Amino acid sequence: MPRMQARWNGALIAESDDVVMVEGNAYFPPEAVSHAHLRPSATHTVCGWKGTASYYDLVVDGAVNRDAAWYYPTPHDAAAHVRGRIAFWRGVTVSEAR
């Protein structure tokens, strides 16, 4: 897997060459994510095969992108490979690092 990065609002949110792709989404290891830009959200959703997802808002220079990052703290066995990894959407650009 090439080195991948996630950017939003001009900020580098995550970068790693240890990314797991699932259903077109890049799941970054938590240590590769800038936690300074994450704010816990009260949102949770349920995926039939992965389990219950928890969310973070992204905060960059005072701008907030609500529920733009998610992770599975205790996924079902079929999704154990994404446990704790963080994925992004809602305008976050995920691409190969340059």
Would you kindly provide a written description of the structure presented here, covering whatever features stand out?
This protein is an all-beta fold and 98 residues long. It has one domain: Metal Binding Protein, Guanine Nucleotide Exchange Factor, Chain A (Beta Complex), CATH 2.170.150.40. 0% of the residues lie in helices and 54% in strands. The protein has no helices and nine strands. The strands form three sheets. A four-stranded antiparallel sheet has the order 5-6-7-8, with no helix packed on it. Strands 2-1-9 form a three-stranded antiparallel sheet, with no helix packed on it. A two-stranded antiparallel sheet has the order 3-4. The chain is globular and about 35 Å long.
Blueprint of the fold:
Layout: E1 4-8, E2 11-16, E3 20-22, E4 25-27, E5 38-47, E6 51-60, E7 63-71, E8 86-88, E9 93-96
Antiparallel strand pairs: 1-2, 1-9, 3-4, 5-6, 6-7, 7-8
